[in-house]
Amino acid sequence: MESSYGGIIPFFGTNDLEATSEFYEGLLGLSLFKDQGNCRIYQVRPGAHVGFCTHLEVVQGKRSPIITLLTESVDKVYHKIRTEKQYPIEEERIVNAKYNIYHFFVKDPNGYLVEIQKFLD
Hints:
Layout: E1 11-13, H1 17-27, E2 31-35, E3 39-45, E4 48-53, E5 66-70, H2 74-84, E6 89-96, E7 101-107, E8 113-119
Parallel strand pairs: 1-4, 5-8
Antiparallel strand pairs: 2-3, 3-4, 6-7, 7-8
């Protein structure tokens, strides 16, 4: 069965839209898709978005949620984070043989774990 859905927008809570914007727009280069006042939606690519809202609770566990951004430029993003900003790298770049990926983890200003990942197959 073919999907009739045109996209996806997972929403996460934030206490600071400006710091969130600096991270996702300024550092990672996502485009602001919609500013709804208390929610901002960033476009990863057409049909794929991520949203942050001040009326939602910031909910996080030790390793969840994970916001994964796919890129062929894992090293480029890693070096940009390391040299331009002071966001904590949670796990260094590695090849994960179990999932056949190359990735690292960084914490965003909300405390969410952001995975920068490339599939190797």
